[in-house]
Design brief:
Strand order of the largest sheet: 4-3-13-12-9-10
Number of helices: 18
CATH topology of the largest domain: Rossmann fold
CATH class of the largest domain: Alpha Beta
Structural class: alpha+beta
Radius of gyration: 27 Å
CATH architecture of the largest domain: 3-Layer(aba) Sandwich
Number of strands: 26
Distance between the termini: 78 Å
Largest sheet: 6 strands, antiparallel
CATH superfamily of the largest domain: P-loop containing nucleotide triphosphate hydrolases
């Protein structure tokens, strides 16, 4: 066992190996930053703005140097004691000197830092989920450079038997495997540099019936997060777009399905985080190539020297670290669809090579001289103005013509406010399940703040904010104070003064009433727009809105919408 470290009058115990971590983890959230670390039961930890605190949050100037003392009991209860801080410690909005918090409940330190304890793993054989993802990221980076392979398998485990799955996997593959417990009764097994024979041995040992899903790099995905999502059978970060209620998004997805039936190359335009990959995947899933592989590659995620190897593959010895021959994205996606995100980031050399492959349907690996035939549908995406880049000479005009057979534009989240509440609710629910937190709901005031915010980061920013809010919320309801400060500032700035307000005299003045009125205005506009496009045909409008016809007719009566449209 590790020796405790003593610092003044504090004692902490930190495991040397994250895969032998304590069963609990300490979580601190300030602004956009989340810090997690294992914490042993009985250990005392001091949190503050600077040393000699054990855990330092230098970005929060509202904290005192030694702000609060934390001790975790055997059942995970967090006992906190304010150490005479200037700006206080708060539980459920009330200032406290000493308090006990159950596992998963949060306290606020000063003006902006939240702290809580979560369950990390139940066994020394099981890593925390965060540690496994970090390990996968490191192994994928190593595999990219050396042409190796990383796999992730999701195994079903009866409650209390998760440790048995991890132990059996270690018995078969030893240090090649890392295990972590996931929700829904699953154990995730990460395999590094394991051969297909190794994988087959593992499946034989654990029993094929227990395999819930798997994914491999290179092949299925290109990132650790995507590897997990693929193995779990989950949708990608922007996937809620496919369940959108926005008329603009419904029209876009309908157009995507029509384009999918053709052989046209497709260029998807939209802001960062808006969901361009989801549109690309929808095209693949509706196309004749749906049974083949869909592979996504972010062109902006690689250096110039590595990108061509990622696209076209490389021969052994082609560059330092190329220890074996490796296929590139085009070969791996042969017969299927290759999605190239941020295509505007391609270097001139990569643009020329990509154009050559699109024209000839043949490629040459880096360091090789043999031509290899490929059959791939290419869908590209960008947030940049490629026409302007072509005029400036930074993007090839002939390549732009090749890529832009059909253009689909993903509207930013601020242009489809009808999606915000549903997406936020979904993301909060996912975060609570993933982190083992009790269910939490959005307060009406919180919905109002979200509707007033322009979301420059789109769906991705909303998801990150909701995951953070689920962690820092001190009770069963997510309040505006649990949102990032920039969202709260935006809501305050957007709220009109009494003199500027266009609300007539006698209208509801309470903030909650104004939020309800705003939601009603948005819903009315959605329905009237859909009816106008359907020329008053309620059946067609209901289908476009993804609503039962009876619900639509009820809404028309409830909102007092006129039925005549011309």
């Amino acid at each position: 066992m590790n020796e405790p470290r003593r610092d003044g009058d504090t004692t902490t115990v930190t495991p040397e190996d994250p895969f032998e971590a304590a069963a609990l983890r300490l979580v601190l959230v300030h602004g956009e930053t989340t810090k997690t670390m294992p914490i042993a039961k009985g250990a005392r930890v001091v949190v503050g703005r600077s040393h000699p605190a054990d855990v330092v949050v230098p970005s929060d100037t509202s904290l005192s140097r030694r702000h609060v003392s934390l001790v975790v009991s055997e059942d995970g209860t967090l006992t906190l004691e304010d150490l005479g801080s200037k700006n206080g410690t708060f539980v459920d909005g009330k200032k406290v000197v000493r308090a006990e918090l159950p596992l998963g409940a949060a306290a606020r330190l000063g003006h902006g830092t939240s702290v809580l304890v979560q369950r990390a793993s139940r066994s020394p054989l099981l890593a925390s989920y965060d540690d496994l993802v970090r390990w996968l990221e490191a192994e994928i980076a190593r595999a990219r450079a050396g042409g190796g392979r990383v796999s992730l398998m999701a195994w079903r485990a009866e409650k209390g038997r998760e440790n048995d799955v991890a132990r059996a996997a270690r018995t078969v593959l030893g240090p090649l495997v890392r295990a972590a417990e996931h929700h829904k009764g699953l154990v995730l097994l990460g395999l590094a540099q394991a051969s297909e024979r190794d994988t087959a041995r593992l499946v034989t040992k654990l029993g094929r019936d227990g395999l819930a899903g798997s994914a491999t790099f290179p092949g299925d995905v290109t990132t650790a997060d995507a590897l997990v999502a693929k193995a779990l059978g989950e949708e990608s970060a922007g996937a809620p777009l496919t369940a959108s209620r926005s008329p603009a998004m419904l029209a876009l997805m309908s157009e995507a399905r029509r384009v999918a039936a053709s052989r046209l190359p497709v260029l998807v335009r939209g802001e960062t985080g808006a969901g361009k990959e989801v549109v690309a995947r929808a095209i693949h899933d509706a196309s004749p190539r749906r049974e083949a592989r869909f592979l996504a590659l972010n062109c902006g995620a690689f250096t110039k020297s590595l990108l061509e190897a990622q696209l076209f593959g490389h021969e052994r010895g082609a560059f330092t670290g190329a220890n074996k021959t490796a296929k590139g994205a085009f070969e791996l996606a042969d017969g299927g669809t290759l999605f190239l995100d941020e295509v505007g980031e391609l270097s001139p050399e990569a643009q020329a090579a990509l154009l050559r492959v699109l024209e000839t349907k043949r490629l040459v690996r880096v360091g090789g001289d043999e031509e290899i035939a490929v059959d791939v549908r290419v869908v590209t995406a960008t947030h940049r103005d490629l026409e302007l880049m072509a005029r400036d000479g930074t993007f090839r005009e002939d390549l732009l013509y090749r890529l832009d057979g059909a253009t689909l534009a993903v509207p930013p989240l601020r242009e489809r406010p009808e999606d915000v509440e549903a997406l936020a609710t979904r993301f909060v629910a996912e975060a609570c399940v993933s982190d083992g937190l009790p269910e939490k709901a959005l307060a009406l005031d919180t919905i109002g703040v979200l509707l007033a915010y322009p979301f420059p980061g789109n769906v991705r920013e909303l998801k990150n904010a909701m995951m953070r809010a689920a962690v820092v919320a001190e009770g069963p309801t997510i309040e505006p104070r649990d949102l990032p400060e920039k969202m709260r500032r935006s809501s305050t700035a957007a709220r009109p003064s009494a003199a500027e307000s266009d609300v007539p005299d006698g209208a509801p003045g309470d903030y909650r009433d104004r939020v309800r009125a705003e939601l009603q205005r948005i819903e009315t506009k959605m329905i009237t727009d859909a009816l106008a496009r359907a020329q008053g045909n309620q059946t067609v409008a209901a289908r476009a809105l993804n609503l039962p016809l009876r619900t639509l007719t009820h809404k028309i009566r409830e909102l007092g919408i006129k039925k005549t449209f011309g």
